[in-house]
Amino acid sequence: MTAVTADATPGGRSARGLVELVFRARELSLVAALAVLVLVTTAVNPNFLSGQGVKDIFLNTSILALLAVGQSLVVITRNIDLSVGSVVGLVAFCTGKFVSADPTGRGVLTALVFGVAIGAVCGLLNGLLVSFCRVPALVVTLGTLYVIQGLDHYIAHGQQINAVDLPPALLHLGNEGVLGVPYLPVITVVVMLAVGYYLRSYPSGRDFYAIGSSPEAARLAGVPVRRRVLAAYLFSGALAGLGGVLWLARFGTVVADPARGWELIVVSAVVVGGVAIVGGVGTVYGAVLGALLLTTIGSALVVLKVNSFWQQALTGALLLLAITVDRVLAVRVTRLLRKRSVRHGA
Predict the structure, then answer these.
(1) Is residue 343 part of a domain?
(2) Tell me, what's the pLDDT at 15?
(3) Which among 136, 57, 126, 46 is positioned nearest to 86, based on CA atoms?
(4) Sequence-ordered list of residues with C-beta below 8 angstroms from that of 303, at least 6 positions apart, any chain
(5) Going by C-beta distance under 8 Å and a sequence separation of 6 or more, which residues neighbour residue 92?
(6) Which of 35, 82, 185, 295 has its CA 20 to 30 A from that of 215?
(7) Contact 288, 188 (CB under 8 A)
(8) CA 267, 1, 326, 336: dihedral to nearest 10 degrees?
(9) For 333, how many CA atoms within 13 A lie in the half-sphere containing its CB?
(10) How many domains in the chain?
(11) Does 5 map to a domain?
(12) For 227, phi and psi rounded to 5 degrees?
């Protein structure tokens, strides 16, 4: 399913395949851009591809990519979630405070359940307001962003969570791995594969694309639009909660609102990764590639000793380019489908 409507006729099925092929080229272009970026940076500084350098890139990408997976479901349904960064901050601090109160009795599993539950509650609130109260998603999630930030600062009261107060197993999750591969990227890849398989293989997963393509048509086709949008926000919030726990495990020391501004980076990663901001198009694989590209650009600029301002400028330029490309491709594909439809009708 895509943002371009295609019927169930043989011509419609071939048109749908054409649309999928065109937009899948976006993901291949991201891989090519990553390869060029890595090759150029390595040519200038061979240490960029050292074992520790590669490990740092994957660790730095993991949480952003995890949030991008959740955000993808929301954007595919033609909505947006600007509260994910504040949810990460709230969960990271609250979970740290919770487990540090009894570091021997509250281990990794307890921390994960606690953090995901907080994130899910935040996502549920967003989903109810957007899907059932029909408040615009931009207004709802911008409002909850500030509410959650304020709640985080109120709970923190200027305090700080220190790594020495956390269970060693939790810190091990964030900084160690298996067979040389850190746990955080493994978790992200597992989540990505599971969500990607669900969206492609299950009718309920394809409903998200139908809603993004045309909410009214999806409703007439019997798709439970409100429930699916609610589920998208619930899932995005739960993954943001998981991201908050992993943030705590990764960095150990946490203050109030540590992920301030991440909501825009997450949206940028999703859109750069080929998930159309108008909904109905994209995959979680592309979103993760977008997150990896943005993180690699940041690491490359540090290695090349370029001012960090240019990372923000490049991110903005990539975002504008991605939206422009989406629009151009959508217009051209629509014209091509109309021509095929006329020929098929003739």
Answers:
(1) no
(2) 47
(3) 126
(4) 41, 44, 45, 47, 48, 53
(5) 115, 161, 244, 245, 247, 248, 254, 258, 259
(6) 82
(7) yes
(8) 180
(9) 23
(10) 1
(11) no
(12) -65, -40
Cβ-based neighbour number of residue 202 at 10 Å: 10
Ramachandran area for residue 206 (φ above 0: left; ψ -120 to 50: alpha; else beta): alpha
The answer as to whether 222 is a domain residue is yes
Range of the domain at 291: 50-335
Dist. CA 184–CA 177, nearest whole Å: 8
Nearest CA-CA partner of 273 in 62, 23, 36: 23
Nearest Cα residue to 94 out of 239, 241, 263: 241
Measured from the Cβ of residue 305, the count of other Cβ atoms closer than 10 Å reads: 8
CB distance 281 to 333 below 8 Å? no
Output the tens digit of pLDDT for each of the chain's 346 residues. Answer: 444 444 434 444 444 555 555 556 677 888 888 898 899 889 888 888 888 888 889 999 999 999 999 999 999 999 999 999 999 999 999 999 999 887 777 789 999 999 999 999 999 999 999 999 999 999 999 999 999 999 999 998 888 998 888 999 999 998 888 888 899 999 999 999 999 999 999 999 999 999 998 999 999 999 999 999 999 999 999 999 999 999 999 998 888 877 788 888 999 999 988 888 888 888 999 999 999 999 998 888 888 887 777 777 877 887 788 778 777 766 666 676 567 666 655 5
Q: What is the DSSP string of 282-327?
A: --HHHHHHHHHHHHHHHHHHHHTT--THHHHHHHHHHHHHHHHHHH
Task: Say what the pLDDT of residue 242 is.
Answer: 97
pLDDT confidence of residue 337: 58
Residue 238 lies in a domain: yes
Report the distance separating Cα 172 and Cα 178, nearest Å: 11
Q: How far apart are CA 288 and CA 270, in angstroms?
A: 8
Pairing of strands 177-178, 181-182: antiparallel
CA dihedral 151, 89, 64, 207 (to 10 degrees): -30
Q: Phi, psi at residue 47, to the nearest 5°?
A: -70, -10
Write down the residue that tokens 């601090």 correspond to: 93
